[in-house]
Model the fold of this input.
Amino acid sequence: MHKTRNLWRWLAVIFFLSFAALGWIGREIYLEKPPIPQQVLSSTGKLLYSGEQIQRGQEAWLSAGGQQMGSVWGHGSYVAPDWSADWLHREAMTLRNIWAIQQFKKDYSQLSHEEQAPLDVRLISVMRSNTYDQASDTLTIQADRAIAIEQVAQHYMGLFGSDASQDKLREQYAMISGSIKNADDLKALPAFFFWSAWSATTNRPGLDHISYTSNWPHEPLVANTPTTGTSVWSIASIILLIAGIAAMILFHQMHRDEEPVICPENDPLVTLKLTPSMKATMKYFYVVIGLLLAQVGMGIISAHYQVEGGSFFGIPLAEVLPFTISRTIHTQLGVLWIATAWLATGLFLAPVLGGKEPKFQKLGVDVLFYALLLIVVGSIVCGWVGTLQRLGTSYSFWLGNQGLEYTSMGRVWQILLFIGLLIWVCLLGRGLWPALRKPSESQGLIAMVFISAVCIGLFYASSLVWGQKTHYALIEYWRWWLVHLWVEGFFEVFATAVIALLLSRLGLVRATSANRAIVLETIVFLFGGILGTLHHLYFTGSPTSVIAVGAMFSALEVVPLALIGAEAYQTYRHNHAAPWVAKYRWAIMCFVAVGFWNTVGAGLLGFAINPPISLYYVQGLNMTAAHAHAALFGVYGMLGIGLMLFCLRGLAPAANWNDKLLKPAFWSLNIGLFMMVFMSLLPSGIYQAVASIEHGLWYARSAEIIHSPVMEALVWLRVPGDIVFAVGVVYLAIFALKLLGRDRSLPLPAGKLVDA
Done:
């Protein structure tokens, strides 16, 4: 007990120090973010853009789909271009051609190498020189460059407008005609794209050859190449990773628990009494399966749009369901169904762990269910209508689609979800309170479940921090608080603690050992995970210190994953601990799959892109998508399904349980995911990475690459994996529906559950 108390103290210290450091870095991002000038002037005195236009352009892009329609600074979807890289390349090419015509009366492409060379040098000098004057809050642009900017702006106004000459390109980008209806918004959009590209290439004050985005994206025309820090900290992170893995293995061997666990002869949960609130959680799990089915459908449609930007096998589906909507729903539901499974698990276990049913607990569970259902349906419908009708920036921010990946729902729905999560924490706390007050071997585990639940509820408030006019660099800072810390952090701690509790209640692990292990694993995870958030922010207008801190701590994130494979094997061995454990076989197998995908998806594929030098070239490419799919579903999705099966084992009639349906469901889901990642997403990401390294990010994300024969073939190779995966979801749905059939088991005493 003394050792455990010391671990809790270390956990508290690391938690508060890490968040203090993360907050301090947030302050530095605020102070050193790329400036938004009050006015952008030509050297002739002509006003090109105002600061208000730049801000309005950001709002216009987000309301039109934002990160679901291409990306800025590498974060977003991958069918349309990265607009900052695309603008940068177009502006450089246009400016260089203007000079060629002025000097030689010929296009740049018609010049000899000797004639091109001085223009290339001049281009780098002009594009990288920082002409922003802080005193007057004015950015002054050379007259020739101002002409190039105006020409490039016409391209984007036509593309996001209704210019018929851009129809083919719109189809390749999976865009709809007239994405932005308001004329002022359409005129402001290029201002934001220009500013994002200017931030990416102009030198920071006082720094030699380092832009506001640390020279991201790779663009040889303007000498945007990796900084020295990007390379040095990448090497240092790899060394730290190797040292950390060695230390973790050594620690694990020195503190191995050799005392064997004596498994109970009978299922300890066989006499579990179902309370009204526990029974009320069953409908949550059917919503989970419904949302999973919808997510898979939207994922198939979104993937197909990469081949046919406006159609689905010839059907003009984009007229009612464009790519921006299908992908928004796909990413949003991915988080919501997993979160719903975990929330329901907490509500189901609260009375079990607390030992009694709090008054009005069932009412609270029912109210929360319908509130969450309203939020899910309302946010999707409002986002859908807003995108189709182009209802403007204010509607998109407050009710529709904010245009931010994984946190796209309008602010009203975010506020309601935050309130719902606080209600969930209260319901969970009421149920767990007796167990939290009573000393026991499991008290530490129950405390970890409750503390992580409180963090889940409170940290969702990070989605409410940014406003409609917040600087884009700060939006990205706070968005990753939500996506990384909320989804990848506290939810994982919560789920891991719940699994440990379940296994200890089944007698498969000792509660004291599980208690120490969970606290220790949480320490290791949060030590790397909190500051590891910064690896998402290397190139988002943040100071160079972010690369150093993010590289080192994101390497530490991977360290505990080195032992996950061994833990997965130990979990698999639980299947053979006693004959009665077979009834939990497929729930336990889901936890085994979590170990596998933690090692492969989060570990191998994650660290493949985490070092700064790697992410410099592959940010915004399908390498990221491969990691995201393997980690999000493989780890968090399989966790959610495993927890759901544990709960359904207690909720459903034992005679209706059918392992013959769960077996193909489990293997189809995992094999389908493996095929999807390693036959399609990863190869296409590698193909794009080669193009990015050789020619620049703009080329890797261009229509020429995205719709090349190789890329389209790789998209089609995703179909077999999608089919196998979808079959697994269908089997899971059929299994769940059969649980609702007439109870065919023998009559039992009231409130008792006995395996058939």
